[in-house]
Amino acid sequence: MQVRQINTRRAQDVEKFVRFPLALYRDCPQWAPPLLATMRRSLDRARHPFYAHSEADFFVVESADVVLGRIGVLNNQSYNRYHQRRTGFFCYFDVVDDPSAARALFDAAFDWMRAHGLNEAFGPHALLKLDRGGVLVDGFAHRAAMGIAYNHAYYDRFLRDAGFVKEFDLLSGRLDEGHHLSERIREISENAKARYGFHVKTFATKKELRAWTPRIATAYEQAYRDFALYYPRTDAERALIADEMLSVADPSLMKVVLHGDEIAGFLFAFPDLADGLRRAGGELWPLGWWHLRRAWRQREWCDITHVGLLPEFRGHGASFVLYTELEPTLYSHGYRHADVQLIQEDNRLSLADMEAIGVAWYKLHRVYRRAL
After folding, report:
1. pTM, rounded to two decimals
2. Helices (H), the chain
3. Angle in degrees, 0-180, between the axes of helices 206-223 and 235-248, rounded to the nearest 10
4. What pLDDT digit, counting tens, does each position of 307-323 carry?
5. Which domains does the chain have, with CATH numbers?
6. Minimal CA–CA distance to 341: which of 170, 168, 131?
7. Strand pairing of 135-138 and 301-309?
8. Element (H, E) at 145
């Protein structure tokens, strides 16, 4: 067994790294692959904007040329400058059920981080926040939503064996067919509109939504500025996030709450294409696009990925204005389930809001930290 750093300019190495999880989860019906083209871009130093300001490398552990596991390591200099820290991040960790393989990967990751002057390891957290972080530690029986991590149950044990401790947990929940917001929630929404003048901007086309993306991106940064993983994104990173979101967006599911002409908050929801990605094996070609299009039309699951309010508008009912606007859209489109994703356990306002509208928590992802 040996660990080696892959050559990201060598297509064969990139494919080994990107495609390993397809073999690892071949017999796991809950797992859904990412779009592999997006994964390949994450390793492309010429195309991904992360590399304009920071460093990353990628490792595999092999036995007789068979991949047993993989890991990515990041020195996000923008994050470390902003927070005055020396944090290294790990990402794309996947491994067979072999503690020695996992240990070899983490030893390589820690050596890399120390060589780059970093004094703590944190993760999983990939190149952009759009890469949804966390290791699944509860809820293994449930299907993975699009873009949300699913992993084998032994991952948590391997991370603890490597010296990691819990930093925080992320909760995901669901709303199922037949659920309706209570009259109390509707009353709070109407009172918030009357008292603060909140109103909702909806979108009919992607062209209209794209025209608003610079304003929405600014609001997004303001809403999440006080979160632990925030750092200022470059214009190129913002553009990539916008392009990736627009590629799967149904404009009618994207809601912005306004206070006058000012954005007070937003709600991002997307058609869940995980079943299409499973059938496509993560590839668009030759027939993956057809599976994704079919999943789009089936509209069984909707993913609520972000609900954010600017600090000055929190606690005024603006979030309930967004929920009451989204509910009839979901029913008119025929969605049967909504997946509410990755609410940080110390985000008390969001957790209270979600519980007030009836979200049932059913998955738990964990983020870890380790001193080096």
Report:
1. 0.94
2. 11-24, 36-42, 77-83, 99-115, 155-161, 183-196, 206-223, 235-248, 274-280, 288-298, 318-333, 348-356
3. 130
4. 999 999 998 999 999 99
5. 2-170 (3.40.630.30), 175-362 (3.40.630.30)
6. 170
7. unpaired
8. none
pLDDT of residue 289: 83
Burial class for 273, CB neighbours closer than 10 Å (0-12, 13-18, 19+): buried
- Beta-carbon count within 10 A of 105 CB: 25
In tens, the pLDDT along 209-245 reads 999 999 999 999 999 888 888 888 999 998 998 888 8
pLDDT at 225 (0 to 100)? 86
- pLDDT for 132 equals 63
> In angstroms, rounded to a whole number, what is the distance separating the alpha carbons of residues 57 and 64?
22
Angle at 205 between CA 201 and CA 211, to 5 degrees: 70
Backbone angles phi, psi at 340, to 5 degrees: -95, 120
Q: Are 247 and 37 in contact (CB under 8 A)?
A: no
Decide if pLDDT at 143 tops 60: yes
| Cβ neighbours around 286 below 10 Å, total | 8
